[in-house]
Write a structure and sequence with these properties.
By secondary structure, the protein is an alpha+beta fold. The chain has one domain (31-191). It has 10 helices and 4 strands. It has helices spanning 15-21, 34-49, 76-85, 107-111, 123-126, 130-133, 139-156, 165-168, 177-183, 188-196, and strands spanning 55-59, 93-97, 117-120, 171-175. It has a 4-stranded mixed β-sheet, sandwiched between helices. The chain is globular, with a radius of gyration of 18 Å. The protein starts with 14 loop residues before the first helix and ends with a helix.
Length: 198
C-alpha cells in the first residue's frame, strides 16, 4: 500500500492518505480464503520484508475472548488473525493494549490471561499521530491515545493505582499465544492442526 494507491470507485478509503502521513509500511491482507490464505500472505510478507521482531497487536482485548461472550460484537477479524499467526513460519509475539476499552468484554475476566507489561503509552507516544487522529476514523486508536494522555496527566498529579479500563488502557501486555489459542474457540481448527503437526 502506497500513498499513490487509489480505491476502485465507488469505494473509498483513508489508507492511501494514512500511508502518506505515517512512516510505516502498510500491507493489505485479503481474508477471502480464510486462515490458510491469510497465513500464506503473511509468510510472503515476512519473506519479502523480513521484519524483526514480529508482533500481533490487539487493541481492546477481544482476541482474548472465548468467542461466545454475549457482548462480543466483532470477533471474526481477531480470530482470523490469531488462527493465521499461529501457523506462520516465524515466531510472533502477541501483545494486547487498551484492555476493555471497547466495552465488549469485562475487564476482570481478561486480566488473568495477560503476561507482563512491556510498555505503557504516554502522550509522547501519541504526539506523532495526533494530526492523523483528527481525520482518520479509528475508534480504538483514538480511545487509546486519549487514555494515554489522561494516564500521564493523572500520574503527574500523583494518582498511580490502576482502577478502571481507562487506567489499564495505555498498558501493553504480552500474552502467551498458545494459552490464548486454547482459550479462544473460534480459531480452534487451525490450533488443532498446528498442535497435531508438532
Amino acid at each position: 500500500m502506497s500513498a499513490r494507491a487509489r480505491p476502485i470507485a465507488p469505494a473509498g478509503s483513508t489508507l492511501p492518505r494514512l500511508a502518506a502521513e505515517l512512516p510505516h509500511t502498510f500491507a493489505l491482507i485479503d481474508p477471502y480464503e480464510g486462515a490458510e490464505g491469510v497465513t500464506r500472505q503473511l509468510n510472503e510478507l515476512v519473506s519479502h520484508l523480513q521484519p524483526e521482531p514480529i508482533d500481533l497487536l490487539d487493541v481492546g482485548g477481544d482476541i482474548l475472548a472465548r468467542g461466545e461472550e454475549p457482548a462480543l460484537k466483532s470477533p471474526l477479524a481477531d480470530a482470523l488473525g490469531l488462527a493465521a499467526c499461529c501457523q506462520v513460519n516465524v515466531p510472533i509475539r502477541l501483545l494486547v493494549v487498551g484492555l476493555g476499552l471497547d466495552g465488549e468484554l469485562p475487564l476482570e475476566g481478561l486480566r488473568g490471561t495477560l503476561g507482563p507489561i512491556v510498555h505503557t503509552f504516554t502522550a509522547k507516544d501519541t504526539e506523532p499521530i495526533s494530526s492523523v487522529l483528527e481525520w482518520h476514523p479509528s475508534k480504538a486508536t483514538g480511545m487509546l491515545a486519549a487514555t494515554a494522555e489522561d494516564y500521564a496527566a493523572r500520574r503527574s498529579a500523583g494518582r498511580r493505582a490502576p482502577r478502571t479500563a481507562e487506567d489499564e488502557g495505555p498498558t501493553v501486555h504480552e500474552a502467551a499465544m498458545d494459552e490464548v489459542l486454547s482459550r479462544n474457540q473460534l480459531p480452534a481448527p487451525s490450533w488443532r492442526r498446528r498442535t497435531s503437526e508438532r
